[in-house]
Amino acid sequence: MSDITDLLGKLSIADAAEAASASLIESVKTKGPVKSGLSENYLTLAASCSDSTTAAVALKTVSGLAALGVSAEPYLKACLPAVLAAASTKDRVVSAEGKNAAGSIAEHVAPFAMKGLLPAIFAALTVETNWATRVVALKMIATFGKKCPKQLSNALPEVVPEITACMWDTKKQVKTAATASMKEALEVVGNKDIAHMTESILKAITTPKEVPEIMHKMAGVTFVQSVQSPALAMVVPLLLRGLREKVTATKRQSSVIINNMSKLVDDPLDAAPFLPLLLPALQQNADSISDPEARSVTEKAVEQMNRLKDLASKAYSVRGDTSKLEAVFKMELPGDEISAGANTAIQHAAIVATTMMDLSFMEDVQWIKNLMGVLCPYCSSEDECKAAIEKVRVVAEGMLEVPEEEEEDDDAEELCNCKFTLAYGTKILLHNTKMKLKRGMRYGLLGGNDSGKTTLMRSIANNQVEGFPDSSTVRTVFVEADIQGEQSHLSCIDYVMHDPAIQALNIPREDVVDILATVGFTDDGKAKPLHAVSTLSGGWRMKLALARCMLQKADILLLDEPTNHLDVINVAWVKNYLNSLTNVTSIIVSHDSGLLNDCCTHVLQIENLKLNMFKGNLDEFVKIKPSAKAYFSFKESKLKFDFPQPGPIEGVKSKGKALMKMANCTFTYPGNDKPTLFDISVQVSLSSRVACVGENGAGKSTMIKLLVGEIEPQVGDVWKHPNARIAYVAQHAFHHIEQHLDKTPNEYIRWRYANDGEDKESLVKVTLTFTPEELKIQKTPFEIQFVDEASGKIQKVKKVVQELVGGRKTNKSKEYEYEVKYAGSNIDSGEYLPLKTLKKMGWEKAIKSVDLKIAQRAGLYVRPLSAKNVEQHLEGCGLNREFGTHYRMSALSGGQKVKVVLAAAMWNQPHILILDEPTNYLDRESLGALAGAIERYDGGVVMITHNNEFCSQLCPETWVMDAGHLETKGDADWMLKQDTKIEDQQQIKEVTDAAGNVSKLKGQKKKLSKKEEKQLVKKIKNLLKLGEPLNSDEEEFAIEKDLI
């Protein structure tokens, strides 16, 4: 020991200092830190670095020892504060040696030991410290970026705030060094999603005015990779700047990015250091932003941050703990007493070991390589040292294990145990999530609309889920009623035989016939095996899909809404079938709570980009997660739909007055001998709330198609009030939009109503297309009477009407007359014929078309067809503006497409809403919102549904269809009780056009008494006699009374 003591003493002797320094370095190099005496005298060396008489040579000694590497490393850490301080002394030699020593330490430090140097470096970066010292400390960090990138990346949450503060320094040299250090630090982040943003983030820190533009770039980033603490350390400074900007749009963007990134944080403890910075700033914005939409976005980010904070408080930390490892090292290293030098070495070893733990360097060879040089001097042999290190490593490995939930105590075969990420386009649906499936179990898959339920099942079926067994190993079948247009002419048997999966299995036709018979496809049944699949109702289509899957003998069944369109009898059949599959695993997506309760052994919930598993059925799941009630309870729904109110109808003063009627209608499909409907008579008014129920194939949808004019009855009459607007959402709702999937929902609605509010979808009905007989009548000259103005005599002439121009007025008899153009006439308009005359001439369908267009235009007047108005309307029907305006319909889920169809039908403010199976594809929360919107809606509603809970909540009247015969039940007279006068409704007093201009509207005119009418006639005659102009009301009255 005396050797090093003597040599340290000679550092103050000018002539002997250089030789003493060289001898000291050589002694440590040959003898090691213990035998040379460095381990017990390193504090003396540190003191010499601060002593002006010995500083230069002592710092030179530190440089030489640092170059030796691992052996001297634990003891040089104590010298670093003095080394950094020396860089700013006035003595140029000492300053130069200090800078060299700092550079040598940074250059030669073992990568896993770098973290141990950071406390001394951070202490040297304070504002009070001399600028030259701070520059050297910042340069050390920049060196770490090149020499130990992974280790620096792991330390970025601590490093970035320290450098950021220096980037705002008033001293140019500090600012330059800090910018260079930050650039090196940001190069080691390791997140590919934001790697290209390095320059932008640097600019944002130093140039605040660039923040809004950089936030725009950041908002365009699609985050896919897991977000860990280094990436958060990189972007948090930028996000904080964005949150503190004055511009609301920038604040909003920051909130969106925070919300999106935080959902990809796998370990909540990664986010923990940043929550105290982000949460207060977000909360302040949530309280102060005036824009309701931006405030709502910020509130969502606050909610997400609080969720992350809660998770972080409960998370099990697997970060390396130096204090715990120090204790383990002391216990495992040989010897009863631990010297001061050994204690320093153990502290250093603990830092190295915890860094390896944090970076998952847990192999035995890695630990031996990085710790032998530090600990071997305190062991009698290399083997003894290796054994001690291995014992510590095993203990450390145990510290990294997260306690797992107890495995289920059953012997079921494991079919799948995988970890995967799932995206749809640019949207991440599931991120680094686990899925474990066992044979014979039935899993109910829950999640809100748009969460990715169907995408997950389709991806499993298409072998696109990483780690999921290949279909050749585990046969997986996706069950959906997916009849394609080009296959609709096939018979039920041929349709099944046409399926590629059935063909691949070489299943004989006889087996197909037998299986179809077991689910009800028989020659004397409602669904016949040789009839075309296009004739099947929704319920029978689903049963056909189930029969097809039964033939494939699957290991895993993927069922997407298997009870959609099914009546109570067939739902019971599906439940029994699923429960009988003791050797087949099922994953079921359904909004039918009864099915999930009666069939499921487990529940899989998609929430916050994770797939969470719970044992038990739906009721058991709700006990654990009460918030999940929203999946199946309408009343628990927090979502809200708002339908536009219908407004008044000319000539209708009572809500109970019929707007649609069917009288004694019988209908037979072409090719069938027996009618589908027999002698049906119904009527619908503004106060109607009707549920149409019945078995699959009973004729419910056919009756509705008759009512709305999609098809025509062979016997009986169908009537609709000429001014009534009708919204119809069909059972197979997607047919409305399947030709427009390349449009966004916003574009689709604006296309559909672009022609002055006329609905392009409603003008292609069979009932508005002329038959050959009608065309023949139209071309036949018809005798028309009129009064000759010159002679006053009644003239008769035979004419042919070429077309109805589109005008309509009311005559003295309060009947409608329609503007016509005669064949051969050059006059485009101005001539009118009564409704009764035109009907005789074969123009009844054209009259209906004119009425329809006029009614639709009236719906457009209050709300112009602007992109902004359509966007608000879509949000009122439950479709977020992100999907409504920025996503093409081809990228939307089934639930989102139904909302588009519903919104499109409701755009022109209909008086009657007709819904055929509205509960299909919508989750419970959306159903609850739909029920609420229907309750608040002032128009009439007719719905076909098998969801008893939904219709019983809304409909006091029921139409029961049984094999084509209709029976009405319930409170059929309730409409009379609802007979409120339409005059009592609040009148629309103003409208706003697309440019934001407000126009005042006149209320409905007060009906004049006979005395008032007589006085007004006298007044108008006097004004006309004097040649005075009439105001608009007077002119309208004069035209009505034939005064002009």
Word description of this protein:
- Strands 4-5-6-3-7-8 form a 6-stranded mixed beta sheet, sandwiched between helices. It has a 6-stranded mixed beta sheet with strand order 13-19-20-11-21-22, sandwiched between helices.
- The longest helix has 23 residues, at 292-314.
- β5, α29 (568-580) and β6 form a beta-alpha-beta unit.
- With 1044 residues, the protein is of the alpha/beta class.
Brief write-up:
This protein is α/β, with parallel strands linked by helices. It is built from 44 helices and 24 strands.
Write the layout of secondary structure elements.
Layout: H1 2-10, H2 14-35, H3 38-50, H4 55-67, H5 73-76, H6 80-86, H7 92-108, H8 118-123, H9 131-147, H10 149-154, H11 156-167, H12 172-186, H13 198-206, H14 211-219, H15 229-243, H16 248-262, H17 268-271, H18 275-288, H19 292-314, H20 322-332, H21 340-358, H22 364-375, H23 382-399, E1 414-424, E2 427-438, E3 442-446, H24 453-461, E4 476-479, H25 492-497, H26 500-504, H27 509-518, H28 538-551, E5 556-560, H29 568-580, E6 585-589, H30 593-599, E7 602-607, E8 610-615, H31 618-624, E9 658-667, E10 677-685, E11 689-694, H32 700-708, E12 715-720, E13 726-729, H33 745-752, H34 772-778, E14 782-787, E15 794-799, E16 801-810, E17 816-822, E18 831-834, H35 835-840, H36 844-861, H37 867-876, H38 881-886, H39 894-906, E19 912-916, H40 924-936, E20 940-944, H41 948-954, E21 957-962, E22 965-970, H42 974-977, E23 990-992, E24 998-1000, H43 1010-1026, H44 1032-1040
